[in-house]
């Protein structure tokens, strides 16, 4: 049973709120212009133990609370992507139980000393993960890696990249995960939103990687990736409804203060009803996503519900950020208004971590409809 109490976690909420107000909000516009967040931010988050949540301490409920609070206190989904890339880069390492890899990569990331990325997507294979081509050929104590990865979050800054490589037969049975530290080239990509989160294309040209950097067993990579997708999708669903909540809060404030035709915008019934409709969509999404997150946290098999949760939250978010820009009028189109950023940032949520159509297809298959 989901109760308010489960997600209350007052102390954590207050800690994250204070951190966001002090360390993120005053600098976010500058980081958006810089195209990345500074390394010191990772250290500051680590000092408060925020980067270890879900690994060294805490659970998925704490991660949900963290994500909600950062975004609703004035952060953004882009900021989350940049600062918490370890959330997708190290879980496979953590779960492999390999102490050497944990010591060399996961723990330094949790301490904010190293930045990690996850590289699965390639120019020729995104949704279709089983089709990746980047090759890793064993040569003594090394793998020799050649190929290309793209759209890699924090790929410009990464000290290590947990990389999906082909070590075996074509299809999902021949994929492994290998941690790669250097020897590859990077190209920074410009994009629509998430400007404070650097995104890169990576080229591997016969890069020699120590075989001891293999995560888990050879050719088990596909299952490792799919298992972690559950948490990534929940996180993106939370980012979606939290972004929508923030956009609604800003819009309520705006419509209370903005006067047209001699009265505040909010005094028009069409506006107040639109705001109520936005609040309803957000609440439905939040309640459902939180319920599914609690089930994932208990270790239940709910792949179908995770698909529903991500799609429902993304749809709610798309509608709300669009309405938020509309109700801000011309100011909603200006870079200086926060809703403009959320509108651009939100667009990726229905593409990354499994596109909406792919979520629906997966749910249809699980339900026996396809
Ligand atoms: C800002 C950003 C950050 C990212 N970060 C990372 C990262 O850190 N690591 C990483 O590995 N990847 C990352 N990605 C890649 C992301 O996961 C992929 O873009 C996503 O999985 C979709 O793959 P694709 O772009 O190749 O689209 P495609 O697979 O080519 O699909 C294109 C579109 O076709 C539709 N579609 C696809 N398959 C089907 C189907 N079966 N049925 C119906 N419709 C379908 C969907 O609308 C989809 O959006 C990132 C992407 C972006 C934009």
Automatic annotation (TrEMBL):
<dbReference type="InterPro" id="IPR006089">
    <property type="entry name" value="Acyl-CoA_DH_CS"/>
</dbReference>
<dbReference type="InterPro" id="IPR009100">
    <property type="entry name" value="AcylCoA_DH/oxidase_NM_dom_sf"/>
</dbReference>
<dbReference type="InterPro" id="IPR037069">
    <property type="entry name" value="AcylCoA_DH/ox_N_sf"/>
</dbReference>
<dbReference type="InterPro" id="IPR050741">
    <property type="entry name" value="Acyl-CoA_dehydrogenase"/>
</dbReference>
<protein>
    <submittedName>
        <fullName>Acyl-CoA dehydrogenase</fullName>
    </submittedName>
</protein>
<dbReference type="Pfam" id="PF00441">
    <property type="entry name" value="Acyl-CoA_dh_1"/>
</dbReference>
<feature type="domain" description="Acyl-CoA dehydrogenase/oxidase N-terminal">
    <location>
        <begin position="8"/>
        <end position="113"/>
    </location>
</feature>
<dbReference type="InterPro" id="IPR006091">
    <property type="entry name" value="Acyl-CoA_Oxase/DH_mid-dom"/>
</dbReference>
<dbReference type="InterPro" id="IPR036250">
    <property type="entry name" value="AcylCo_DH-like_C"/>
</dbReference>
<dbReference type="InterPro" id="IPR046373">
    <property type="entry name" value="Acyl-CoA_Oxase/DH_mid-dom_sf"/>
</dbReference>
<feature type="domain" description="Acyl-CoA oxidase/dehydrogenase middle">
    <location>
        <begin position="118"/>
        <end position="207"/>
    </location>
</feature>
<comment type="similarity">
    <text>Belongs to the acyl-CoA dehydrogenase family.</text>
</comment>
<keyword id="KW-0560">Oxidoreductase</keyword>
<dbReference type="InterPro" id="IPR009075">
    <property type="entry name" value="AcylCo_DH/oxidase_C"/>
</dbReference>
<feature type="domain" description="Acyl-CoA dehydrogenase/oxidase C-terminal">
    <location>
        <begin position="219"/>
        <end position="367"/>
    </location>
</feature>
<dbReference type="Pfam" id="PF02771">
    <property type="entry name" value="Acyl-CoA_dh_N"/>
</dbReference>
<keyword id="KW-0274">FAD</keyword>
<dbReference type="Pfam" id="PF02770">
    <property type="entry name" value="Acyl-CoA_dh_M"/>
</dbReference>
<keyword id="KW-0285">Flavoprotein</keyword>
<dbReference type="InterPro" id="IPR013786">
    <property type="entry name" value="AcylCoA_DH/ox_N"/>
</dbReference>
């Amino acid at each position: 049973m989901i109760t308010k109490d489960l997600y209350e976690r007052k102390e954590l909420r207050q800690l994250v709120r204070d951190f966001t107000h002090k360390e993120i909000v005053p600098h976010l516009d500058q980081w958006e212009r810089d195209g990345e967040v500074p390394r010191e931010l990772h250290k500051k988050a680590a000092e408060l133990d925020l980067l270890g949540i879900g690994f060294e301490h805490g659970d998925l409920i704490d991660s949900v609370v963290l994500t909600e609070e950062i975004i609703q206190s004035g952060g953004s989904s882009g900021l989350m992507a940049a600062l918490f890339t370890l959330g997708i880069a190290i879980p496979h390492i953590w779960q492999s139980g390999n102490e050497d890899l944990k010591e060399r990569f996961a723990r330094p990331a949790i301490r904010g000393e190293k930045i990690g990325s996850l590289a699965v997507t390639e120019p020729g294979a995104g949704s279709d993960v089983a089709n990746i081509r980047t090759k890793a050929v064993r040569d003594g104590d090394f793998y020799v890696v050649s190929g290309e990865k793209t759209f890699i979050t924090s790929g410009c800054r990464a000290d290590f990249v947990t990389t999906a490589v082909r070590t075996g037969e074509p299809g999902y049975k021949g994929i492994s995960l290998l941690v790669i530290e250097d020897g590859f080239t990077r190209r920074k990509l410009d994009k629509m939103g998430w400007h404070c989160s650097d995104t890169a294309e990576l080229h591997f040209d016969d890069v020699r990687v120590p075989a001891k950097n293999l995560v888990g067993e050879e050719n088990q990579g596909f299952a490792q990736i799919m298992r972690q997708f559950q948490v990534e999708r929940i996180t993106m669903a939370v980012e979606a409804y939290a972004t929508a909540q923030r956009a609604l809060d800003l819009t309520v404030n705006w419509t209370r203060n903005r006067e047209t035709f001699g009265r505040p915008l909010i005094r028009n019934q069409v506006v107040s009803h639109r705001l109520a409709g936005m609040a309803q969509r957000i609440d439905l999404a939040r309640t459902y996503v939180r319920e599914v997150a609690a089930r994932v946290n208990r270790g239940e098999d709910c792949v179908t519900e995770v698909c529903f949760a991500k799609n429902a939250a993304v749809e709610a978010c798309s509608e709300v950020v669009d309405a938020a820009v509309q109700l801000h009028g011309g100011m909603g189109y200006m870079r200086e208004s926060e809703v403009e950023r959320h509108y651009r940032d939100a667009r990726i949520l229905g593409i990354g971590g499994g596109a909406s159509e792919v979520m629906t297809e997966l749910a249809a298959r699980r339900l026996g409809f396809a």
